[in-house]
## 1
Amino acid sequence: MLVKTKGIVFHSIKYSETSIITKIFTQTHGLQSYIVNGVRSARAKGKASLFQPLNILDLEIYKREDKNLQRLREYKMGYVFHTIPFDIYKISLLLFLAEVLYKTIKEEEANEALFHFIEQTIVTLDQTKQSTGNYHLTFLLQLSEHLGFFPHGDFSETLPCFDLMEGQYCASIPDHPHYIEPPLSRLFFEISMDNRSIIFGGAERNMLLDKILEYYRLHISSFSEIKSHKVLHLVFEE
């Protein structure tokens, strides 16, 4: 069956001397693996660059239900980046987003809401002229809603701690090490509410990132260590 769809590249690896295998999150069929022949040959003229992380593509695919590895008939850029390739902050964020998505999304079925959320996140990152210092934190918490473990409840003077295991605010420090203390818990709440006017320093931002990644590890059993966040620590430490 021949299908036209949009796709977002999550990950690509070399396969033979001239080909690649790429994982693409498609609008119509969720996460799929494709073999793309000849894109690394001398005649390909840079076609392999189309399969860089989080590129948005227009695809025409051969869909076979009896195959785990699918093939592409046609592919082209669906959205061309205007600022990301020239901005070290945005490049770092894009690579982080790509690693998180690759390690969290496994579903091989359509999820229109999730697809549009990811697409809009990428396009907004490219087009925004505002500060991107908290972009990755907001993204992680918004993604957690799509994955089913968005934080419950509200921060308040009577509920000043966030229990990472239970996923909700609590009155006192829990009897396990997986929590966010009151001062940082308030910032965590503001980020979860997408408060873009809130201002805080690089040290707090990095602590929040570590806590949110811990939150992911507690709620996704297959969530392995994220490596690109170390780059974000350096880039957004100010």
## 2
Amino acid sequence: MNIILERVYNVCKQVREQSSDPITFRNLIGRTRNTFKLCNFDISIKSKKDKDLDTDKWYVMAYYDSENDFNMDTAIEVIVHHNLAGTEPLGPHQVTAFLTEIFDATVHEFRHQYQSMRRDHNQYGEHVDTPYELYLADDDEMDAYAFSIAIELLRTMDAERAKRRMGRISVLSKMRTGSQFSSPQLRAYIGHFGLNPLTKKLSKKIYHHLETIDKRWVFV
């Protein structure tokens, strides 16, 4: 996975370096899409207007399709939901925030691709209409979220410090960096399930990823 992390990191870094002057949201999405393509990523990146959002907000969702992957079609789709005109200039902080979301969503789906490829694309879990609790408890999702949580933690602390705190995962889930949780996804997991055998299993998976992820390739 570190090879994928490095490649996605380099794409996001390149886009940020090319967007040092104010850039519009619309152009930033286009530049991100084109840079992934130039770096030989077969990823679909789209934007979708969502009038229920505040006019300065966006969020990124991504999906992996195992059947498409098996058939050598585009397997990962990234959708940027927003309610911006698209012509507003974005500053460096906003560009980094956007690319961080792109990085996190993309590598999460590449983790799913890794899981599916190890099974020769057989029996990859589909989650359409699955209750949220069962979705989060699914082994593939737990592994991918543990991977994402490890990345979030590595943005704010070194791996050894994070591993030492895994024994008190409830306390770790409440830690903040400034006004934000150090790992919003960990906070969501603990907030939903509390402390039980499932979150103990999650903790072990996070620990494993903390040991294997190369922090150099965590985009921040």
